[in-house]
Amino acid sequence: MKKFLLFILFLLLCNQPSKEKKIRVVSLSPAVTEIIFALNCEEYLVGNTIYCDYPEKAKEIYKVGDLINPSLEKIIKLKPTLVFLTYPLQKNIDEKLKALNIKTFNSSPKSLNEMFQEIIKIGEIFNKKERAEKLVDSLREELNKIKKLKKKLKVYIEINANPPITIGKNSFLNDLLEFIGLENIFADKLTDYPVVKHEEIILKNPDYIILFHPTSKVDDVSSRFGYEKIEAVKYHKIVNNLNPDYFLRNSPRVIEGIKMLRNILRDEE
Amino acid sequence: MKNKKVKMFFLFSFLSLLIFLSLFLGVDGFSFDKTIVLKVRLPRVILGFLSGGSLAYAGAVLQGLLENPLCDPYILGIASGAAFGVCLGYLTKKLSYFFSPLFAFLGSFIAIFLVYNLAFYKGKTNKIALILAGVIISFLFSSLTMLFMVFSKRPLNEIIYLIMGNLAFVFNKFTLTIFVIMNFISIIFLIIIYSKAFELNCLSLGTEVAESLGVNYQQSIRLLFFLTSFLVAIQVAFAGAISFVGLIIPHLTRFIFGANYKTVLPLSFILGAIVVIIADLIARTIAPIELPISMVTTFFGAPFFLYLLRRNL
């Protein structure tokens, strides 16, 4: 009898690995890692990068390297069925992986809508389309609750201080700003992260300055020569307490980011 | 002699015209906004003037001192040291970026100290020891900087732009004070080096010739090494490693005005300043995005220099 039960148990265990289990993915994009966790599909995630630090559990996953130069050997060793990456940063890696007959998935959404579509596509890959649609619906609902600004406010986003680097028209963040009703003063720049001149910033005279470089104090910006003319400096509207990860990664976390930003702008119409 | 005076007059009037242009020319044509002209462009022009001038000056000194036409101001490891210094600054996470010139200077200082100890072993040195020590320290610091770049999770634009040269430095009261103090020192250094022009003339003819003419070689090489190193370190701290100027301008000056260090030194300074100011003007007006200044100096400088070389050969 005991033997028979053990035999049954053995058979059950043998039948356990279903088709789904065979999916093994590597994510070379911190944003995709976050989406995978948001979809509760982390069991399929076998490798990610040292920059994949959200949620906490993403840190425990096997690291294949950084974003620009991950170890191909480590990726091959993991035998992934699919590797997620972003363009244009990882175009080279994409070509190398394709040459090694490893399938890749390029996820580089440029707007909120594209990000939602991307989440559904990623859900389809894990055969979890319904779950993805549910997530997108709830995210859209959250978004619709956020009140947009009535009056357009000009905003300058600073990603790096010396030299000043901001965001251009085609970046994901630009779309977020437009959603709230903020106007990026460098929306005329076509590159994603253009280097700009201090005189341009002074001339464009933003109402708000948002700093996305860690360690910077408000004073580091307001004490710059010539900046005293800017509205944002005059009325102390410099924001430096936002975590850039909430805004620069195209993952569900941006909804939280938008809420935080809207909360800072709560006194505005 | 008269010809030389005409050339010099031309040079100075060109420089003043250029400064005027740089002050009022922006990305969308001429603009006269008081704040921008005085607080953004004027510091930039001054920075360009001092760094371009000092780099060419230092290049001229080192080429003569080390009897090597390929010497540039960074051959002694100063620029790599500065980049490493900025990395050190990143490690102390809390400091604002206004401290980075100080860290760059600290890095350069470490590099100078190490080169000195390597090259002046047991109190004596020769040119080859100095060049080799400089090159080795330069590689060492570059590798450390690369190590840092690979492991750091922060965007390292500042270091990249420091290596490429960048005049977009914006001042506040704190940095302006440091800038003024440091440049006051560098002007004193420029004057001391100028007073050594005779020694440099002798040294550029070879060590034996110089010693037979009564030049204390060991003493001169030590003094000039220190003065030029600090001169370059001060400039790199604010403007980054602007390439090409320190290598080519001294040669250009010698082509036009002859090889006497009494004229080569000041005119290298003026020509270096002119070239960097032009390059900066191009870098910030020609494209909608600011170009790296080293790219401009090299891209426009190299063909021009080749043309001169052809004509003089």
Automatic annotation (TrEMBL), chain A:
Residues in Fe/B12 periplasmic-binding domain copies: 24-269
InterPro entries in alphabetical order: ABC_Transporter_SBP, ABC_transptr_periplasmic_BD, Vit_B12_bind_prot
UniProt-listed Pfam families: Peripla_BP_2 (PF01497)
Example of a GO biological process term: cellular response to iron ion
Xref: SUPFAM superfamilies: Helical backbone' metal receptor (SSF53807)
Coiled coil: 122-159
Keywords carried by this UniProt record: Coiled coil, Signal
Protein name: Fe/B12 periplasmic-binding domain-containing protein
Source organism (scientific name): candidate division WOR-3 bacterium
TrEMBL record, chain B:
InterPro entries tied to this protein: ABC_BtuC-like, ABC_transptr_permease_BtuC
Gene Ontology annotations for the cellular component aspect, listed alphabetically: plasma membrane
One Pfam family named in its UniProt record: FecCD
UniProt keyword annotations, A-Z: Cell membrane, Membrane, Transmembrane, Transmembrane helix, Transport
Residues spanning the signal sequence: none
The organism's place on the tree of life at top rank: Bacteria
Topology in membrane: Multi-pass membrane protein
TM segment ranges: 45-66, 73-91, 97-116, 128-151, 171-194, 223-252, 264-282, 289-309
Subcellular location, record wording: Cell membrane
Gene Ontology MF terms in the entry: transmembrane transporter activity
Family: Belongs to the binding-protein-dependent transport system permease family. FecCD subfamily.
Protein name: Iron ABC transporter permease
Organism this protein belongs to: candidate division WOR-3 bacterium
